[in-house]
Amino acid sequence: MNRTRVIRGVIGACATMVLAEMIVRLGIVDSEVVPPISEVLLRSVTLAGDPVFLAGVADTVLAWLVGLVLAVVVAVVVGVVLGSVPWLSTPSRIVVEFLRPIPSVALIPLAILLFTSETEMKISLILYAACWPILLNTLYALQDVDPVAKDAMRSFGFGPLAVLWRVSLPSAAPFVATGVRVSAGIALVVVVSAELLSGGSSGLGVFLINASSSGGNTDVMLAGAIWAGVLGLLVNALLVRVERGAFRWHFARTERTAA
After folding, report:
1. In angstroms, rounded to a whole number, what is the distance separating the alpha carbons of residues 214 and 143?
2. Which of 60, 141, 209, 257 fits a 20 to 30 Å CA distance from 22?
């Protein structure tokens, strides 16, 4: 099933590239504005050996990783506290629903003022944006834990912390992992957007904005964008693999229920 999906994805990607190449070669789109996809792909290969580009990608990945790890820690801890203390649920939900729709990009000017370090600014924005999917998944997962399992643990004399550790957290873990995977993609978009809009000394977004401002480097800019997409694809594939390996029992049960 997964192999079939991969084959279909590869076929779709190849068909899209052929179509994009034909659109430019046939003159439908001016090649001076948008170069052929073949030239962009060739430039993507050359970028893989460009030390400036690789250094920018490394800075972006570092900020993304640190921000995502912090978001996981903060969101899971806050989610467990809010999901385990009933009298905190309603007031906290109001705050969450108020803050969650605020786009992280709109907070870039505030982050620039608050943080003198470029890396701290990016990490703070990632932390804000990536927290919400993990936090909400944690809250909803804790609410959906089987009450019979928790009552059974209590009947054997286990306290609230033991019930949380032995029943609630293992049951919620697959949904928290899904939130982490969603947040990973959001974090990558946010860090590149922050670099594009705020400027700075290094980063994938800085490389893209420098390429676009130089003029006549559309192929370089698009090649950098392709690498950003490849990076997101690799991150998602890695997290899916880890998620399926760590929670094999959850996916097996889901597939049996669907069948």
Report:
1. 53
2. 209
Measured in whole angstroms, the distance separating CA 121 from the mean position of its chain's CA atoms is 18
Report which DSSP code applies to 106. G
Is residue 104 within 8 A of residue 190, CB to CB? The reply is yes
> Taking Cα atoms as reference points, which of 187, 216, 79, 218 lies closest to residue 138?
79
The pair of three-digit structure tokens given for residue 154, joined into one six-digit string: 């209590």
Residue 129 has pLDDT above 80, yes or no: yes
Distance CA 190, CA 239 (A): 18
240 contacts 217 by C-beta, under 8 angstroms: no
Return the pLDDT at 182. 93
Number of residues that make up the chain: 259
Q: What is the pLDDT of residues 52-67, one digit of tens each?
A: 899 989 999 999 999 9
- Flag whether pLDDT at 51 surpasses 60: yes
Q: What is the pLDDT of residue 169?
A: 87
pTM: 0.85
Residue whose C-alpha is closest to residue 129's, from 88, 185, 73: 185
Phi-psi region of 215 (alpha: psi -120 to 50; beta: other; left: phi over 0): left
The pair of structure tokens assigned to 133 is: 């999917």
For the four alpha carbons of 98, 100, 106 and 109, in that order, the dihedral sign comes to positive
DSSP-H helix ranges across the chain = 2-25, 37-47, 51-84, 86-99, 108-114, 118-143, 147-155, 160-163, 169-198, 204-214, 218-246, 248-258
